[in-house]
Specification:
Distance between the termini: 70 Å
Helix content: 40-55%
Structural class: alpha/beta
Radius of gyration: 21 Å
Number of helices: 13
Shape: globular
Strand content: 15-25%
Length: 313
């Protein structure tokens, strides 16, 4: 009887002070055409009306489950998601944000595609919106798909194949005991998903937008682009962890070196630059060249920018 009542999918949603937005996100979940799910809401210590807002859902629909973050998990998005992973009962896992909108067929289509072969995950396209969500949903019968393997890892690392935290449904068994790095306050999914794919996981990608991310200044991404030091430092740490993980599998390439060197300069992180050079086995001369380049980069950057504009013209 317990197995019959067990949800097929677990939606994990961390929340913090989003009383003004979370209802819209939960209503979109309630509208899913696939109905055998649980939505695990982990509150990271909200001081607004989040609890009262969520209670309207938990009181009327047993599939919504509300928890406050347990103190054994570090404050922040990764800790809340790890708690959700530890209590989730579904065979499939997806992480939703508390201010976004899911397509009504997201779970239906993802689970159909996951059942076709022995895939570990199903990815789908994501788009963004600002202000009020006014999208008219297109209901789908089928769509083009493609496989994703470790061969696509470079494109994922460089965000040429976006792997946003909310645009992938995972088999829980494929995640196994892997968890988010709780010290990361930004780019946590970049590091986590790269680590999962390095295990050799294989997935399928649906060529349709099934998730809509809300753009606003209070989001983690908004804070990163405003150069919030916590988000910038977290991006640096995530980059260092990815370099380490690639190197441990002997998969760090010259292309990775170039990518992470550029990131190191853009984020003003000498550590990322040094770790990239070490992973690539660079000689002492090359290391000295880049360290000097980093030192004088503030003076050279306007020249590089001018040169780039001249070449474009």
């Amino acid at each position: 009887m317990e197995d019959e009542m067990r949800p097929e999918g677990s939606i994990i949603m961390a929340t913090y002070n989003r009383a003004h937005l979370i209802s819209e996100s939960l209503l979109a979940i309630k509208a899913q055409t696939f109905t055998n799910w649980e939505c695990i809401i982990i509150d990271d210590g909200s001081i607004d009306e989040t609890l009262e807002t969520v209670k309207k859902f938990t009181d009327t629909d047993f599939r919504f489950k509300y928890f406050t973050r347990n103190k054994k998990y570090k404050k922040g998005l990764p800790g809340c998601r790890n708690q959700g992973l530890d209590v989730a009962k579904g065979k499939y896992i997806v992480f939703f944000d508390d201010d976004d909108i899911s397509h009504p067929q997201l779970l239906e289509l993802a689970l159909i595609n996951l059942s076709k072969k022995k895939y570990d995950f199903c990815r789908y396209e994501r788009s963004t919106f600002r202000g009020k969500f006014e999208k008219e949903f297109e209901y789908l019968k089928d769509s083009n798909t493609r496989e994703i393997t470790i061969q696509n890892l470079d494109a994922i690392i460089k965000n040429e194949l976006p792997f946003n935290s909310c645009q992938v449904v995972w088999k829980k068994s494929s995640i196994s005991n892997e968890r988010f790095e709780e010290s990361l306050m930004f780019a946590e999914e970049w590091e986590f998903y790269t680590r999962l794919l390095l295990k050799g996981l294989k997935g399928i990608s649906i060529d349709k937008v099934l998730y809509f991310g809300r753009k606003h200044p209070e989001s983690n991404t908004g804070e990163f682009f405003r150069r919030n030091p916590v988000r910038i430092n977290s991006q640096n740490k995530a980059a260092i962890l990815i370099i380490k993980n690639l190197n441990s599998k002997d998969l760090f390439t010259e292309k990775h070196k170039i990518f992470f060197l550029r990131m190191g300069f853009n984020l003003k992180s000498l550590t990322v630059i040094k770790r990239s050079l070490d992973a690539a086995g660079s000689n002492s001369f090359e290391k000295l060249k880049y360290q000097l380049g980093y030192k004088f980069y503030p003076f050279l950057k306007p020249i590089f920018h001018l040169k780039s504009k001249i070449l474009k013209n």
